[in-house]
Design a protein that fits this description.
Blueprint lengths: L2 E5 L1 E3 L11 E4 L4 E2 L2 E6 L6 H8 L8 E5 L5 H4 E4 L11 H10 L8 H13 L15 H13 L5 E5 L7 H18 L2 E5 L3 H7 L2 E6 L2 E7 H4 L2 H8 L3 E5 L5 E5 L5
Parallel strand pairs: 5-9, 5-10, 7-8, 8-9
Antiparallel strand pairs: 1-4, 1-6, 2-3, 10-11, 12-13
Helix pairs in contact: 3-5
Amino acid sequence: MVALRLDDLGAKYGARNGSGLAVEGVATPELAGGELTAVIGPNAAGKSTLFKRIAGLLSGPGMVHLDGAGSAPQDAIRYMPQDTSANAVLTVYESILLAAKQGGGWRVRDHELTAIDHLLTSLQITDIAFRNLGELSGGQRQLVSIAQALVRDPEVLLMDEPTSALDLYRQVEVLSYMRGLARQKNMLVLIALHDLNHALRYCESTLVIAGGRLVAAGPSREVITADLMRDIYRVEARIETCSRGEAHIIIDRSAA
């Protein structure tokens, strides 16, 4: 099973605090395949920069340790950026096929077409398969980006706010699908989220990034606490557990 660990990781992405590092000193426990790990934190905390550093798109100090992968890191790790812009003249199907062929030959094989058809069905976007990307809504483009990221069967997937343009129903559908897929394929999924209730419900573990540093890591229910809400997000809140055992964040509006 694949496992990822970050050792004193930093990323250079313009000047920050005079050090030239936007992210620095990130050291995590081992993150195992088969589950979703939430990456949370305020805006501009460094989540996207951290993802780009793990994916090898940015340079910096420290090490990304990847164990148990069946291929080299550049093939095992896939990054889905928050920006879903793409070539507007391609159809949805063509864009996913192009993603499948990146880094390989151009001969299209039956198993690749089968994989694309499966993704279109699983993400419920079969009806837009032959529409141009430029005709799609932001939420539809986001679903296509998920298909593009999954089509090459990654072992580690970095998803930067993949549900930000989706309505609530589709957010729940996508997160449920990703959790099931991670378990089925023993894939490790790191997913940047703003909705902490989603992190509590769908992610077994959580990393908290603030000011370019890792400030907390561990099981989601142990990390996402009233103290975290107060210290990192500057809001008063409490965590309640419903009769089904699910945890929910309740914001204290009177303290606002």
